[in-house]
C-alpha cells in the first residue's frame, strides 16, 4: 500500500481515537471528561495541554550512532516529518508539532544489517521551561537495526515520534523512561509498517512524576508484523500511562501487544489502554493484546482497559486479556517451603513476572540494566512484606 493510498483510508470512527488535525484550533483544551483524557492527572501536566510555552532548551542530546546509520538534527522546515502519515490526534501532540524547531532524523540505509544499536540519550536539566521535540526514524527496505531512545534527568517534555519501517525491514525501537522523579513527559509515537516488514516496539517506563505515552501503528502492505512490548514499575505518587493502538489497515497483517507492570507505594498509579482496530479491508489478520499488573502494596492503583473494534468477520484470530492482582500466595509458600526467606521469595516472584517480556527485548545490555533497575526498585521499599499482607485478594 502506498502512502497516498494509506492517507485515503477513512478516518477512524472511534471515541478512543479522535480525528487528527494539524490546526491547534481543532483540539479543545481537555477537561478530563474526554475518554482519552479521563485517567490523566491534567493538573500535573504543567499546562502542556493548555498554553505553556514550549520554547525551553534545558536539555541535551547525545548520540551513539552505529556504523552506517545517520543521526542528524534538521530544521523543521527542511525535515521529512509527516512521512509516516501521522496527524496529531490531541492538543499536546498538535502543540508539540507546531513548536518543534528541529527534527532529529535517524536513517538506516536500505539493505543494511546493523549489529550495534544506535542510542540517543536525552538528558533534561530543568523542569521550569517546557520544551518540544520531534524524532523521525526511517528503516530502509530490507534493513535490520535497533534504535534506543534513553530519557533521563529532569524535564517538562512534549514530543512526537514517527517511525517508518519500509518493505521487508526489521526494526527494534526502544524507549527507556528513566527520568528523575520531577519530570513530566507526554509523548505520541506513530509507526507505519511496510509489506512483510517487522516492527518491535519496546517501552520501558521507570521514572518521572507523570509519563503519558501514546503509541500507534498502521500498515502499508500485506504481511506486516508489529510487536508492542512494555515493562513499567511505578512507585509512590508516580503516574505512568500507556495507550496503545494497532490499526490494521491492510490484510494478512499481525499485531501482538503485551505489557506488564508493577506498582508499590501510596498513590502509585498506572494506566494501560489497549485498542486494536480491524478495518473492513484487513482480512486474514491475527492480533492479540494483553496487560498484566502486579500490585505490591496497598495504596496503589492500576487501570487496565483492553479494546477490540472489528469491522470484518474474515480474520484469522483476535483476542485480548487483562489481569490485576497481588502476589500469588502459593508461589510464595512454595519458595519459602524450600528455605528461601520471604523478602527474597517476593523478589523472585517479581523477576519471574517480568522475565518473559524482558528476554524478548533482544538487547542484552538493556535487559541486564532493566533487571538491575527492578532489583533497585524492590530494594528501596523496605516495608514491602508488611503491606502486601494487608492487600485484598
Automatic annotation (TrEMBL):
One record GO biological process: iron-sulfur cluster assembly
Domain SUF system FeS cluster assembly SufBD core: 128-353
Family matches, as InterPro entries: Fe-S_cluster_assembly_SufBD, SUF_FeS_clus_asmbl_SufBD_core, SUF_FeS_clus_asmbl_SufBD_sf, SUF_FeS_clus_asmbl_SufD
A Pfam family per the record: SUFBD_core
Highest taxon in the source lineage: Bacteria
Family: Belongs to the iron-sulfur cluster assembly SufBD family.
Database matches in PANTHER family: PROTEIN ABCI7, CHLOROPLASTIC
NCBIfam families: sufD
Protein name, per record: Fe-S cluster assembly protein SufD
Organism in which the protein naturally occurs: Aeromicrobium fastidiosum
Amino acid at each position: 500500500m502506498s502512502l497516498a493510498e494509506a492517507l485515503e483510508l477513512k478516518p477512524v470512527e472511534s471515541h478512543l481515537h479522535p480525528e487528527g488535525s494539524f490546526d491547534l484550533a481543532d483540539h479543545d483544551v481537555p477537561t478530563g471528561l474526554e475518554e482519552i483524557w479521563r485517567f490523566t492527572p491534567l493538573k500535573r501536566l504543567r499546562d502542556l495541554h493548555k498554553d505553556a510555552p514550549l520554547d525551553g532548551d534545558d536539555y541535551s542530546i547525545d548520540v551513539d550512532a552505529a556504523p552506517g546509520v545517520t543521526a542528524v538534527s534538521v530544521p523543521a522546515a527542511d525535515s521529512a516529518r509527516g512521512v509516516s502519515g501521522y496527524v496529531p490526534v490531541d492538543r499536546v501532540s498538535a502543540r508539540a508539532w507546531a513548536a518543534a524547531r528541529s527534527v532529529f532524523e535517524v536513517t538506516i540505509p536500505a539493505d543494511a544489517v546493523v549489529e550495534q544499536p544506535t542510542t540517543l540519550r536525552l538528558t533534561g536539566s530543568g523542569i521550569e521551561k517546557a520544551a518540544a521535540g520531534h524524532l523521525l526514524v526511517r528503516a530502509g527496505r530490507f534493513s535490520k537495526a535497533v534504535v534506543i531512545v534513553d530519557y533521563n534527568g529532569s524535564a517538562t517534555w512534549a514530543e512526537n515520534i514517527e517511525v517508518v519501517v519500509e518493505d521487508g525491514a526489521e526494526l527494534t525501537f526502544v524507549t527507556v523512561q528513566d527520568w528523575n522523579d520531577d519530570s513530566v513527559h507526554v509523548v505520541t509515537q506513530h509507526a507505519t509498517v511496510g509489506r512483510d516488514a517487522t516492527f518491535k516496539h519496546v517501552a520501558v517506563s521507570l521514572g518521572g512524576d507523570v509519563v503519558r505515552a501514546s503509541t500507534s501503528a498502521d500498515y502499508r502492505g500485506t504481511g506486516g508484523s508489529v510487536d508492542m512490548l512494555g515493562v513499567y514499575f511505578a512507585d509512590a505518587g508516580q503516574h505512568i500511562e500507556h495507550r496503545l493502538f494497532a490499526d490494521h489497515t491492510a490484510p494478512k497483517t499481525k499485531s501482538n501487544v503485551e505489557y506488564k507492570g508493577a506498582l508499590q507505594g501510596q498513590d502509585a498509579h498506572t494506566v494501560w489502554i489497549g485498542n486494536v482496530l480491524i478495518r473492513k479491508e484487513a482480512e486474514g489478520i491475527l492480533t492479540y493484546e494483553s496487560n498484566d499488573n502486579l500490585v505490591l502494596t496497598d495504596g496503589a492503583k492500576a487501570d487496565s482497559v483492553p479494546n477490540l473494534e472489528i469491522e470484518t468477520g474474515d480474520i484469522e484470530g483476535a483476542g485480548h486479556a487483562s489481569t490485576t492482582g497481588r502476589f500469588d500466595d502459593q508461589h510464595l509458600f512454595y519458595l519459602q517451603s524450600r528455605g528461601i526467606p520471604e523478602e527474597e521469595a517476593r523478589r523472585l516472584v517479581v523477576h519471574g513476572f517480568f522475565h518473559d517480556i524482558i528476554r524478548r527485548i533482544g538487547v542484552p545490555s538493556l535487559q541486564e540494566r532493566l533487571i538491575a533497575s527492578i532489583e533497585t526498585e524492590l530494594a528501596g521499599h523496605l516495608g514491602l512484606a508488611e503491606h502486601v499482607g494487608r492487600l485484598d485478594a
